[in-house]
Amino acid sequence: MAATTMDQLVSLCKRRGFIFQSADIYGGLQGVYDYGPLGVELKNNLKAAWWRAMVYERDDVEGLDASILTHQKVLHYSGHEDTFTDPLQDCKKCKNRFRADHIKDGKCPNCGSTDLTEPRMFNLMFKTAIGPVEDSGNFAYLRPETAQAIFTQFKNVVDSTSRKAPFGIAQIGKSFRNEITPRNFIFRVREFEQMELEFFVKPGTDMEWLETWKENRLKWWEEQGLDLSKMHILTVPKEDLAHYSKATYDLEYQFPHGLEELEGIADRQDFDLGNHTRYQDELALSAKVNKNSDSSAKLALFDDTDKKWYVPFVVEPSAGVDRGVLAVLTEAYTEETLPSGETRTVLKLKKHLAPVKVAIIPLKRNNPDIMKLAHEIKANLLKTGIGRVMLEDSGNIGKAYRRHDEIGTPLCVTVDFESIEKSPTSVTIRNRDTMAQERINVSDLPAYLKDFFLK
Ligand code: GAP
């Protein structure tokens, strides 16, 4: 099958209600997208799979949900105020602005002019005013990564959970970057979500953990349906490492627009906890607090063997939710030619990711007995906990199958005349991938579906 194109995905996402341009009716807000009725389900399912793997299935990770508005000092001491920048160049002819590394052969990517400004550094963080008075001292940042709050809440989490290294803190949430050139649909946007784990380890064991997390994360992406032969592990060259990193792997995926980063796994050493600790020390000094050896180890762990405080190192697997959604859609999108010569578009999503798990299709909408049974089946199936069960009311079975193939619904249950006329009451189940249909008694449905979805 030909590789999935971005146009195919953008079109499907709009047509079927996965993803829309933000403020579409006003011409759109660049680099910002909204998730529609099916997109929100898919995204939530991906995040739930990550949370389950990172928090519930492990015994060494706690969760956090911190604020988006971030104190200026946090992002000063984290190094973001000084170093979270991209070089940009302006085209003097068409007045467009580009990231310097997106300009090839000194030519404007928009109009081809070579009349460009020299590169200038541009900080990617969004600032916003806090409180009713807008002055230079009253501002906060929208966080550019979820990670910083994990570091600043480190002590509170450790004190409330008594964790010892190795252990991690996981968080899923929005991040904001004023990207100079947002592009490639939801790949590079200004508002996005991250799934980040900060895993705190003893210094010296960090490189081993970096390898462990690389393997762990690759396996997880495979479980989300990605073909590992379309993934590549980039060892980030020293000169390209983020300001906090000693070593980083980028897990790259073959997106429709090219092989690009899906997730970064970085050894952040003690860069962040160390810097925030230094600030705590400065505060203590300026307040003339009696400084003892423990106070210089505020964001630290106590080593029971050495009887000393130490600042743990951090290994950080950091994945983009939106890039994850784009990757699983790319992988799942399939066009098949049927024996009749027709083309069938089917989204072969892993069943735990499918926005709708089961569609219940009444063969005749105006038959009260069929409708009553369809409603009863839906109410019963919801109790199984398999996820969204949808009562389809298009009234046309062929159209309903096509729609549910396109949105990736693994099973369709059809309530027909036999269902209401014959005993025991039965329905047909159609499988998305094989299109095979089988008849099953309604009383057996819950067990059948639990087996299909939850095993
Ligand atoms: N805390 C580390 C960190 O933020 P990063 O490599 O800058 O590292 C991690 O970002 C992940 O966040 C990336 O691998 C990507 O999936 C996602 N991401 C970063 N910038 C993005 C953007 N502008 N649009 C969509 N996703 C983005």
Question: Can you offer a commentary on this structure?
Answer:
This protein is of the alpha+beta class and 455 residues long. The protein folds into 3 domains: 6-68 and 143-270 and 312-328, BirA Bifunctional Protein, domain 2 (2-Layer Sandwich); 85-123, no CATH class; 356-454, Anticodon-binding domain (Rossmann fold), CATH 3.40.50. Helices cover 31% and strands 28% of the residues. It contains 13 helices and 24 strands. A 7-stranded mixed sheet has the order 3-10-11-17-14-13-12. A 5-stranded mixed sheet has the order 21-20-22-23-24, with helices on both faces. It has a 3-stranded antiparallel sheet with strand order 4-9-8. Helix 2 (37-56) crosses helix 9. The protein is globular. The two termini are 30 Å apart. The structure holds glycyl-adenosine-5'-phosphate. Glycyl-adenosine-5'-phosphate binds at residues 145, 147, 177, 179, 188-189, 192, 194, 196, 261-264, 316, 318-320, 322-323. Residues 145, 147, 177, 179, 188-189, 192, 194, 196, 261-264, 316, 318-320, 322-323 line the site of glycyl-adenosine-5'-phosphate.
